[in-house]
Structures
1.
Amino acid sequence: RPVDPFDLVIFGATGDLARRKILPALFKRFCAGQVPAEARIIGAARSDLSVQAFRDLLTASVTEYAPEHVREPGMLDRFLECLVYQKVDARSAEGWGELAALLVLDRVRAFYFSVGPSLFADLARRIREYGMVTDQTRIVVEKPFGQDLESAKALNATLASHFDESVIYRIDHYLGKETVQNLMVVRFGNMLFEPLWNSQYVDHIQITVAESVGVGGRAEYYDRAGAMRDMVQNHLMQLLCLIAMEPPAKYDPDAVRDEKLKVIRALDPVKPHHIVRGQYVADPERPELGLGYRDEVGNPRSRTESYIGLKAHISNWRWAGTPFYLRTGKRLVARSSVINVRFKDAPHSMFGAQPGQHSNVLSIRLQPNEGITLQVTIKEPGPGGIQLTDVPLDMTFAKALGPDGRDPADAYERLIVDVIRGNQTLFMRGDEVEAAWAWTDPVIAGWQSCGDVPKPYVIGSTGPADADLLMKRDERRWRGIN
Ligand code: BG6
């Protein structure tokens, strides 16, 4: 279903995120017939670009990031017609009057802040000063939303002084991933899982977001942030919330976000010995795999972690006693994001199975190969008597989606359409972000105060050995990364 014609202003339109994600996502939705030809995408940045130069930039970016769509005849030319460019400078009056004049009355006007948070205040002020706020205005902001609780509060206060919370869309692109949304439907749309979804039946939950890439071109940002701020405070916390939250009464933004917030607030402080920090190092036997972290970021004494493994506890009625193990890292053996819910053993095995030998595991795979499998124990088929074996009940979406197994829409496609439609369910509310920082801040302060040095792990491995020990101490183990 197409959305109504809208104006979308992208501040930072020539930047990396716009080129890699936002513009290709808009183009893909255009090809799918969801973005109408009357929509206008207004690139706004400090560079002095002609409209044609901006269109060339878009052409280059979609050719790289949405090549199969570029091949659809005529689509790119039609999409380019939607594009406009306006030079503006957040720190001066330049270009703002012209930008305001471009906007059409009576349609949704979304302002996408694809810029560093240091510019949020200036942008917000100019938007208001130049009379661009209507009852159809939406403000989209990207992470990082601050680098600690204090800065996040300041950003929230700045935004709140210009806009109502109901028009602010804080992006966490993990919430736009197909399986992440499906997680809510699987949990709350079936009778099967929810009665077992508590500490009485769930032994533990593992959330893994493994990446094979390194810090790439973002060394400066990353070396200040580290994995805790870059991934745990947002993406992993959001996954944890969706896995652990109580059923909201409706699929409605505040109903969902209220429940997520309760999870974050129920998290116990993490104990220092329940956290492992790691930093990747080059593999001397396979130097072709790349540079170690410190060389890559050009900071030989860096103590920034590129890996985190931790054990969290949620102190509430449902989860008391069930640990949540979270891990994320760069330059690991594979790109693989999975949530594993491991159920307890049956109370007694009439087949003589050893404890822990056969258990049900619900695996929710975010990427690649989005899908859900449930490991169940069955009899090994054949005449060999009763032998137990574990097989997956497989709900891989690519197969279900069609014979061509096309990838589900990219997270940004879904989220941008939600912005235009005015649906905040998959966006973080200000209090959620603050609660997440309130949980991560003491952890970061803890290792800063004791000068903690991250444990080395070799590029292409599964992370530091201490992360395995974290599990082993509890007589558990990580499931493989693949
Ligand atoms: C971003 C982080 O938010 O998410 C990056 O800043 C990370 O460091 C990326 O690589 C991972 O996203 P995805 O969608 O590739 O899993």
2.
Amino acid sequence: PNGCPSPALGLGPSYRPESEKPTATVSRAVDQSNVHILSQTPQLIALLTMIRDKDTQRADFIFYSNRIIRLLVEEGLNHLPVVPHTVTSPVGKDYTGVKFEGKICGVSIMRAGESMEQGLRECCRSVRIGKILIQRNEETSLPKLFYEKLPADIADRWVLLLDPMLATGGSAIMAVEVLKGKGVPEERILFLNLIASPEGIKNFAEKVPKVRVVTAFVDQGLDEKNYIVPGLGDFGDRFYTF
Ligand code: PRP
Ligand code: URA
């Protein structure tokens, strides 16, 4: 991990005096303007505390991860443009609002990214979903592309790219390159992520600077095996097989 200490904040409702708020480690801030970190609320920190715990069993890991994923999807959708839209209410009055007008699709980086598909479907009912299978080599940490299957008209869509872990950034960068190869401009890709390392964020922003990132937390760093620290271990294993 790099030497910069993680910020600790007193968390809890505003009606509580500072002295009664427990101190928790919150996400680091980052320099990259295209990276949006979820608001570090008491709920988000409590959910992350659950899934980081090595003693949290699989059913709870899935349940609490799903709650964070839902927050990421809802926030991610806020980063898509909207157009004016006025409706008439049942009492005959107009309400001036907005609606989303583009087409979207999800693309999950398998295996772990598939865990985020359900949260996306809960918000976008019949969303099309593409898949990219990229696996990190356990020795070298280098990503390898095995398979991709994407909607035929993906170049006309906004793409919500899904992967809960951004460690070195290699897998996510490779996935973005696949999408760019299909004609999707970086500006129309939104990467949704649970936990990122500062190294991964930097690498990603250097290689694909126009992709927007929405993440729940930027952690301390990487260990010698390129696992995120403190992190939560292997997300795919904990969600699917442990
Ligand atoms: C994990 C994770 C990311 C990648 C992050 O997947 O889900 O895809 O590693 O690491 P990186 O930023 O250094 O590339 P993994 O390859 O372990 O496969 P899995 O999804 O099957 O667990
Ligand atoms: N993949 C994971 O699931 N966890 C890490 O910490 C790094 C890569």
